[in-house]
Design brief:
Order of helices and strands: HHHHEHHEHH
Structural class: mainly alpha
Shape: globular
Helix content: 55-70%
CATH topology: Four Helix Bundle (Hemerythrin (Met), subunit A)
CATH superfamily: CDP-alcohol phosphotransferase transmembrane (TM) domain
Number of domains: 1
Number of strands: 2
Largest sheet: 2 strands, antiparallel
Radius of gyration: 21 Å
Strand content: under 5%
Number of helices: 8
CATH architecture: Up-down Bundle
């Protein structure tokens, strides 16, 4: 008696395609461009050109948002690309922002200025490591902790706003020094919290974007064009606080505040994890 071959049920998830081992030019070229932007930003900060340094980090953030999408669109995902992207993120959003901030405002605080800079860089390393480990069990609607590009935008955005407002030689202005201290420390610690920050990857359980969202994006672009430093910094300040607001709201409603799934087989978790 022959055994019938096993046929997968309709509701069984399709097996994930194996990750390729090759190296693909286009997505990795974008990742290298983001890495160069971060390097350029550090060099500009050393030379005292802080506006150029800030713009370079924002360019790195834009490029970082593109490399993964390009890899998926061209079906060129690879294990090498994933590791390259993670290392590039550590430099662009983990090392460059605190170094630029230290060069701009913290160095005259002496060893006290090391504290927020190191907390930031350590927080970024811990956040990226945790992200890589938990990628399969985190609710796709949220990031666990402030994402490193947003933390970088918070720190760099403050520098850009102050520089654009004409504040030069800020190491001699106490309130700016201590504001820089507080913002850098806040961004570093926020990366390692469990507060849920919205990822904008899923809209109401769907991957498709409603038409109204495109109108909002259009308005945001128009606002950014009016005054890029102030508008971008304002947006990321709101985003940097949003995770704690969501955390407090969930706690007040008696809902679980963690974005880690207790079981990815739970029907309530269906479609929310990779």
């Amino acid at each position: 008696m022959t055994e019938e071959p096993h046929l997968p049920a309709d509701d069984e998830p399709a097996p994930l395609p194996p990750r390729r081992r090759g190296i693909y030019v286009l997505p990795n070229a974008i990742t290298l461009a983001a890495l160069f932007s971060a390097f350029y930003g550090i060099v500009m900060a050393i030379n005292g050109r802080f506006e150029a340094a800030c713009i370079a980090i924002f360019v790195a953030a834009v490029l970082d948002s593109l490399d993964g999408r390009v890899a998926r669109m061209t079906n060129s995902q690879s294990a090498f690309g994933e590791q390259m992207d993670s290392l590039s993120d550590m430099v662009a959003f983990g090392a460059a922002p605190p170094l630029i901030m230290y060069q701009w405002a913290l160095q005259d605080l002496g060893r006290l200025g090391w504290i927020p800079a190191f907390v930031y860089i350590a927080g970024a390393a811990l956040r990226l490591a945790r992200f890589n480990v938990n990628i399969g069990v985190v609710d796709k609607r949220f990031f666990q902790g402030l994402p490193s590009p947003a933390a970088a935008a918070l720190v760099i955005g403050f520098i850009w706003v102050m520089d654009d407002s004409g504040f030069k030689g800020v190491s001699r202005i106490d309130w700016i020094e201590w504001s820089a201290f507080a913002i850098t420390l806040y961004a570093g610690l926020s990366m390692v919290t469990n507060a849920p920050f919205y990822s904008f990857k899923v809209w109401g359980g769907r991957r498709t974007v409603p038409f109204a969202a495109l109108i909002v994006v259009m308005l945001v672009i128009a606002l950014v064009a009016l005054d890029p430093p102030k508008v971008l910094f304002g947006i990321f300040c709101l985003y940097g606080l949003s995770g704690y607001a969501v955390y407090a709201w969930r706690k007040a409603k008696g809902q679980p505040a963690s974005v880690i799934a207790t079981s990815t087989d739970d029907p309530d978790e269906k479609g929310l994890h990779p």
